[in-house]
Amino acid sequence: MLATRDQRSASPPIVIVGGSLAALMAGIVLIRLGHKVEILEQNESSTREESGAGITMGARALEFFERFDRNVEPHTVPCPGVNYFDKNSKVKKVWERPMQMSSWNSLYYRLRANFDGHTNCFCPNPPTPMEHHGEGAFQLGARVTGISLVGKPGNVVVKYTNTITGTEKSIVTDQVIVADGASSSMRQLLLPSSERKYSGYFAWRGLVDEMEMTDEERRLLTPSFSAFKYRGGYIMCYIVPGDNGNIKPGHRRFNWVWYVQCPKDSPWYKEALTDTDGHQHRNSIPKGRISPSVWKQQLAHGKSVLNSIFLQLLSNTKEPFLSVIHDYASSQASFMNGKVLLIGDALATFRPHMGAALNQAAVDCLVLEKLARGEIKVEEWEKIVVQHGQQNRALNAAFGIMNIYGVISLKFWAGLVGYFWSLMPLQWWIRRFF
Predict the structure, then answer these.
(1) Tens digit of pLDDT for each residue in 376-418?
(2) Per DSSP, what are the bridge partners of residue 202?
(3) Would you report the helix, strand and coil content of the chain in percent, each value rounded to 5?
(4) pLDDT, tens digit (0-9, with 9 covering 90-100), for 241-284
(5) What is the secondary structure of 204-236 as a DSSP string?
(6) Three-state DSSP state, 48
(7) Angle at which helices 21-32 and 59-68 pack, to 10 degrees?
(8) Which helix (H) or strand (E) holds 15?
(9) Cis amide leading into 223 (omega within 30)
(10) Chain centroid offset of residue 23 CA
């Protein structure tokens, strides 16, 4: 269990495995409550390559940033709703649904500024810690290799390799939070049978600077979220911050995502995931590594199914990248008598159709705050975050299947049944104890 206020000064730091957005959010919650927190991140540099991943700020994510973000500069792009385009690039339907859009890099550096005062081009003047705050440390080059209970008090030993020096190290703590992302190695250690499920489709992605599109194209694509659906797939785009988090018009970027079916046993699956060096990837290919011949074939496919406005976006994309869409939701979030907790994408990985991943992290961390304050017990925390993860996994899957395969497909109805099953409290207990 988390230390009480009187125990914090004598307690070892809470260890968070992974430097994800969820990890930083959890770390911020805990240091604001006076805890010492150490994040172990396997990357050896604080600089993150621009991933181009656009992020929708859900209601709980907005709540989190409103409460815990002490940076004063605005960082999101307002979006009034969704414009649905037809084959002739005309708007055929408008859905008024105000949203706030951001990007992974913008949020990462903003959270780093709040967690450990990291100075960066996104937040050149990080907020000064307040007197009652705990301390946050972000250790780079720390690849965690094991977690185990030790000793009568039930302390946890976290073993890791310092990849910079090559030395083996360990930390003894009384609380560990696992937040090492969708491909979590620690989840695999804690739940050996856990396995993400392939959705049956890819997400092709790209970024285009706002001023690389014509005035008419910018008029069509801003400020709303834009979408075009065709038989067998769909594509969408929206505005995200530009370089260094710039949100001024003319300096932002169009972030597009194109969902395309690809059976795992097809030759194209292997070919598309083979990069410029001939290396076959499992989950994604980053910017600049897509094979030119693969991208040429994908553009040719686009010409047969997409409308002109989205074809122009693809043509203006200099470095596309590719993600294999998986999903997973754990039936367990607490391990080793509550000493180890699983959060964020490590706990539940959603298909990205509804932009719910950041919201999931916010839910996990806002409820974690209640646990750390002693307002709820770990069993209640676990029940809340597991149910939220399973319900949103099923909902995002049903949404994606409906838009890619159609409502008459067996996949859609199976997904819909899965969603309603996830709403039943009984299923959590069945999975948890049987």
Answers:
(1) 999 999 999 999 999 999 999 999 999 999 865 555 556 556 6
(2) 260, 324
(3) 35, 30, 35
(4) 998 999 999 999 999 999 999 999 999 999 999 999 999 999 99
(5) EEEEEEGGGS-HHHHHHHSSSEEEEEETTEEEE
(6) coil
(7) 40
(8) strand 14-17
(9) yes
(10) 11
